[in-house]
Amino acid sequence: MKKTPGPAMFKGRQTEPLFILCAVRWYLRYSLSFRDVEELLVERGLEADHTTIWRWVQRYGPELEQRLRRHLKPTNKSWRVDETYVAVQGRWCYLYRAIDSTGATIDFVLSALRDADAAKRLFRKALADPSHPQPRVINTDQAPIYGSAIPDIKKEGTLRRRCRHRPVQYLNNILEQDHRAIKRRVKAKQGFREFHAARRTIQGYEAMHMIRKGQARWVNGSDVRQQIQFINKLFELAV
């Protein structure tokens, strides 16, 4: 198949940009390994080594998340915050995540440590995004890291002082359920070998998860074809 010109970010790639995005989408959307994606491409007459697919995910997964941000619907003012475990190089790291009361993803941060500084990074990152209004309440479990992180970011002016911290475990059940969508993909990968690679891959997982939840404007969360068209447009590819 003759390769057609694509956007500059695909320059130097020997594979059609549409097929690259297809492989990246499969990996980020479903609980597949890189070798699984390699086999699926072979079924369609395309050859790409699993290490090449890994490089595509590392390059275009974070790019998808960054380009998606400006198309997200606003979240609400009732936040749920918690962390979950992710294996990196055989050690546990911590994925801090925030969603609103409807289940919409607000933001996430991967940290090597489980401490108040990591929680503060999550809050700063989330509140720097204009699509997230200042929360009126932040629900967490009773971990002491949140009891110190939230007052600190109030003092620095990042978070409004009127925001209420509500440490009630059962109210975070919706977030525990939401963790599972990310954990399934991590489990298929059987852990990460390097921290920065883990962070870039998780950016892609989270971006695809937001699209599937219907957080992108004018994109139906249950319409797979519409989501494919949307992602192609994000990367300036003709549909």
Task: Write a structural description.
The protein is of the alpha/beta class and 239 residues long. The chain has 2 domains: 8-71 and 194-234, no CATH class; 78-181, Ribonuclease H-like superfamily/Ribonuclease H (Nucleotidyltransferase, domain 5). The protein contains 8 helices and 5 strands, in the order αααβββαβαβααα. Helices cover 47% and strands 15% of the residues. The longest helix is centred in the first third of the chain and has 20 residues, at 50-69.
Q: Classify the beta-strand content into a percent band.
A: 15-25%
Structural class, judged by helices and strands? alpha/beta
Q: Give the overall form.
A: globular
Unreliable stretches (pLDDT < 50, length at least 5) are none
Q: Tell me the number of strands.
A: 5
> Can you summarize the main beta sheet?
5 strands, mixed
User: How many separate domains make up the residues?
Assistant: 2
What proportion of the residues is helical, as a percent range? 40-55%
Mean pLDDT: 93
Instruction: Please state the CA-atom Rg, rounded to the nearest Å.
Output: 19 Å
**Quaternary structure of the protein:** single chain
Biggest sheet strand order reads 3-2-1-4-5
What is the N-to-C order of secondary-structure elements (H for helix, E for strand)?
Answer: HHHEEEHEHEHHH
Gap between N and C termini: 18 Å
Please work out how many helical segments DSSP would assign. Answer: 8
